Amino acid sequence: MLHRLLTTRAQAAGCQKSSIKAAAMQHWSKWLCPGRRSLQNLYKQAWFPMGDLLAGDFTTSPQKNRGSIVHIGGHNTRGSSMHCQPCQPCRQFNNNEAAFLSISEPLCTNKTQKMSIVTAAAASNGSRGLGGLGRKKSGSKSKVHWVCENCGESYSQWWGECKNCKEMNTLKQFTEHLSTAGKGGGAAARAVEHLGAGSVMNVVQSKSDGEPNSQKAGGRAWLANVGGGPQRLSDIAKGRSQLHWRLPLPGETGREFSRVLGGGLVPGSLILVGGDPGVGKSTLLLQVAGLIAEGSETHSPGPVLYVSGEESVEQISSRADRLNIRSHDLFLFSATDLELVLEAIREVGPKAVILDSIQTVYLAEATGSAGSVSQVRECATAMLRAAKQTGIPIFLVGHVTKSGDIAGPKILEHVVDVVLYMEGERLQSHRLLRVVKNRYGSTDEVGVFSMVEGGMEAVASPSELFLSARDADTKNGAAAAVAVTMEGSRPILLEVQALCSSVGQQPGRRTANGVDGQRLSLLLAVLMKQASLKLGNQDVFINVVGGLQLREPAADVAIAVAICSSYLEKPVDRNMAFIGEIGLGGELRLVGNMERRLAEAFKLGFKSCVVPKLSVKTLKGSLSESLVTIPCSDIKEVIKHLFL
């Protein structure tokens, strides 16, 4: 190949065949490594024609020249590594024209081995004379995952059934290209690297102000070493007031939303809001954006950025007009490219950001389409870094799967600080905002809102809302009982209805709406075993009025009383409430917050309440004498007191 090319060029220049080597030295002298004495040394150490070493003409592209000149016995080697390692004198040539491949002398034990090493080195990228043998492998690597399209769980191999959601044939192959991760921690890190540090919360400082990051981090660290090392908890909390640190929201709706979050918005927090389509996520967050932009008594008004990947700015403006939002500092932006969103955050400098939704945005450097596992992970990580670096609270709207879980990988719920879930029946006016995860408050809080023409309104007394239908005169009120439950720190009274219907075949059906089916089966087994009720040939239907979900065991007594009332066809006193958990032996177990439960029942006009006998000792007698407590030790005593 090039050996014949050199011969042709030398003869054309008037050189004899014996002077080919001299012509080659004159022709290639400008490409030689300064750290090597002469081309003669290279020719002798290689033990084969120089044309095989200098395989291919040089071009102006450094990548195409890589490996075209081989330096034997170089200064920079890594054992048996075949990576391009130019010696120090060659670096300026490497950056301009060609790359030099260093091979250490101890690698070569005989002529055959040395020739194979040098031949493989000379045949790397840009070498055409050796037929591509021994090409250097590209730096891109890939890793295969099997991801469940239903719940987002990831596995290293294929399984017929997802072990997380128990669905069959839902695992899809996903290839992750590791080369996209880069030195800076992935596409998410590169997307936010130009985002400046914020002034709202000095959690993260710039590299010029704080301590430098660890050299071992390789540039992947994005939280600066603030304060020069570990700090005392007392020193960090000194001079900081939790009351003024959080960002409160004005109005009834704002206060209800703040109570769910634990007292207000935490600067730099990342909040994920999920829920079924049409439940009111976008409506509530648009109202929250308007409240933040208007300001409060303790915080001045400020800009808020509302980004939508599903609606145009005209559609959002129409919805804001319907909700009577007129804030001058509310900025609307319709985009799906997350880098444009981050650029808008840098330009506007908002007090809060709302992204609707995380499944519609994408990063150009991340693999997959918008909404895929890799895109959701990288976009969520980018927004997390943006929130921590700027101190801006960011809301993310998340889609849900058919099973009700938030769509995307499970890491989406891990990286965020707060996970809120809005639930409610489509035909019902009320909505519940539950806390699934909260790093800055309790996970037991629940916000109750009502969907009206002007948007979401906070419900001051949820119990009155759910018991409003009890005031009407109903002829068939035999199978209903009121349970006093706790939703977070708020007591709520709910009505439980039951219907028992005899069938000719066994066993009967068990249908529960608002109650866990396994919990219903347990209570029916206790009633048949401990109370001797023959419910085996009965169809039992349970319904919680208002479409709410009863998750607390304190409603066990009310469910059992409603079933007994329907089976025995005897009504329950409408002014009586029920509190207590039922054990497998039929005993009534103590539940917490008894005084708050009884106070709520008394405020709503109930005259008596069935409670576990053990709770009488814990009551301090602060309740009015108008509310009569009926202590019972087991479910048989309750049935005897009410129906026998």
From TrEMBL:
Q: Which SUPFAM superfamilies match?
A: P-loop containing nucleoside triphosphate hydrolases (SSF52540), Ribosomal protein S5 domain 2-like (SSF54211)
Gene3D superfamilies this protein is in? 3.30.230.10, P-loop containing nucleotide triphosphate hydrolases (3.40.50.300)
Pfam families named in the record:
AAA_25, Lon_C, Zn_ribbon_LapB
SMART domains in the record, alphabetically? Answer: AAA
Sorted UniProt keywords = ATP-binding, DNA damage, DNA repair, DNA-binding, Hydrolase, Metal-binding, Nucleotide-binding, Stress response, Zinc, Zinc-finger
Q: Does the keyword DNA-binding apply?
A: yes
InterPro entries in the cross-refs: AAA+_ATPase, DNA_repair_RadA, Lon_proteolytic, P-loop_NTPase, RecA_ATP-bd, Ribosomal_Su5_D2-typ_SF, Ribsml_uS5_D2-typ_fold_subgr, Rubredoxin_2
Query: In what residue span(s) does the RecA family profile domain sit?
Result: 246-400
Output this protein's name: RecA family profile 1 domain-containing protein
The species is: Sphagnum troendelagicum
